[in-house]
Amino acid sequence: xxxxxxxxxxxxxxxxxxxxxxxxxxxxxxxxxxxxxxxxxxxxxxxxxxxxxxxxxxxxxxxxxxxxxxxxxxxxxxxxxxxxxxxxxxxxxxxxxxxxxxxxxxxxxxxxxxxxxxxxxxxxxxxxxxxxxxxxxxxxxxxxxxxxxxxxxxxxxxxxxxxxxxxxxxxxxxxxxxxxxxxxxxxxxxxxxxxxxxxxxxxxxxxxxxxxxxxxxxxxxxxxxxxxxxxxxxxxxxxxxxxxxxxxxxxxxxxxxxxxxxxxxxxxxxxxxxxxxxxxxxxxxxxxxxxxxxxxxxxxxxxxxxxxxxxxxxxxxxxxxxxxxxxxxxx
Length: 331
Fold this sequence. Notes:
- It is built from 12 helices and 7 strands.
- It is of the alpha/beta class.
- The model has no long low-confidence stretch (mean pLDDT 91).
C-alpha cells in the first residue's frame, strides 16, 4: 500500500504513545494520550493537524482488550490500520538497546514504513465473534482459578492431622463451588450466543460434524479466525497454532529433523492435541491412519501432529464447502 505518513502506537492499559514518522524528511514526532474514547479523539485530531488521514497508515501491536477500543475507533473513522504481533515487530527491526514506550512507538512507526507492502489492513470481527472471544477468555480465567483452588485444597489436606485447616478448607470449598457454578453459567452463555447468531450457529454445526472437534474447539477456532475471515487457508492457521512442521538445516553439518515451531498459540494447540487424542478412542479413519504410521516407525507425537493438521484442514474444508463432514467408510 502506498502511504507517505506512518503512525506507530504503543498501547498500554492506561495510555497510548503515538509516533508520527515521515520517511521523506526522516521526521519523527511523539505524543501521549489516554487509552479511552477522549484520548482516541485527541490522537486523531493531532494526526489530522499534521497530515491528511488518507495519507496515513496506523500500526500497533495486538494487545487484546487494551487495543480493541482504539482499533474499533480508527476503523469507524475510516483510517487504515494494521495490527501486528509484538514478536514480529521486535524481531524485524534489528538490535534494540533502548526500551521505553516512546521508543516502542517510534519502532512500530518505522516498522510500518519498512514493511508497508507486506502488511494487511485490520478488519474488526463481527460483534458476535468479539463477544464470543471475550466469553471464552473469561471462561479460561475461571478454569485457571478453579485449578488453583483445587491445588490449594489438595495441599492443605496434606496438613490435616498436624495443623487445624478446617477454616481454610471450608473457605476454599465454598470458593470452588462458586467457581463451578460460574463456569457452568459461562458455558450456557456461550451456547446461547452461538444459538442466537445465525452465522455462529451454522459454523459451529459444520465444525462439530468433524470427528475430534467438540463444542470448545469449534468455539475457539471460530473466535480466533474471526469467523474464518482472518486466515486465507488452513495452512496459515496451522502455522499460527504451531502444528505446521518446518525444516531445520544449514550448510552441510546442520541437519536436524523437521519440527514444529515454538512460536504458536499454545492454548489452541493444546485443545487440538486433546481433540486428536480423543479421535483414537474409537475405531475410525484416524485410528486406522495412526496404526499405519506407527507400524511404519513414526513417532507417536509426529502422528498426533499429523492428525491435528487433519482436523484443521477438515474444519476449513467444511466451512469452505458449506457442507457437513462426510465420514469415510472403513474397509
